[in-house]
Amino acid sequence: MLSTFDRASIAVASACAVASNFVKVLSVAPLQVLPSNLFLSTFASIGINDDAHLATFKALLVSLVPAAIQGAVQALGLSTGLQVGLIVNHVDALIAQSEA
Asked: What is the pLDDT of residue 1?
């Protein structure tokens, strides 16, 4: 079974790949993405640079996480200057808390 961090990473990377033409998920086991520094990048630097792209990202992410945390993910405040990895960490914590 995948760790909560792995599941959060896959969900965030997948949502980024749909919302941006600059992100690709090459493999989920193990997770391989382009750009390789995706989780260190800001949303703006990967092409998620306006409210429409952020809304697409969030809608996809909500659909990819467990039902128990969908409301919390929907309530996330996102901005184009936010580092993608911070969202991974937050989603990881939400998943872990929901399964505790």
From this structure: 84
Question: pLDDT digit string (tens) for 1-10?
Answer: 899 999 999 9
39 in Cβ contact with 9 (< 8 Å): yes
List all residues 6 or more positions away from 50 whose beta carbon is below 8 Å from its beta carbon: 80
Domain-wise residue ranges, the chain:
4-99
- The whole-angstrom separation of Cα 29 and Cα 51 is 31
**What's the first-to-final CA gap in the chain, in angstroms?**
16
Instruction: Evaluate whether 13 touches 31 at the Cβ level (below 8 Å).
Output: yes
The answer for residues whose C-beta is within 8 angstroms of residue 42's C-beta and 6 or more apart is 80, 81, 82, 83, 84
- pTM score of the predicted model: 0.97
Return d(Cα 37, Cα 98) in angstroms, integer. 28
Kindly report the backbone phi and psi dihedral angles of residue 29, in degrees, each rounded to the nearest multiple of 5, phi listed first.
-140, 90
All residue ranges of the chain with pLDDT < 70 are: none
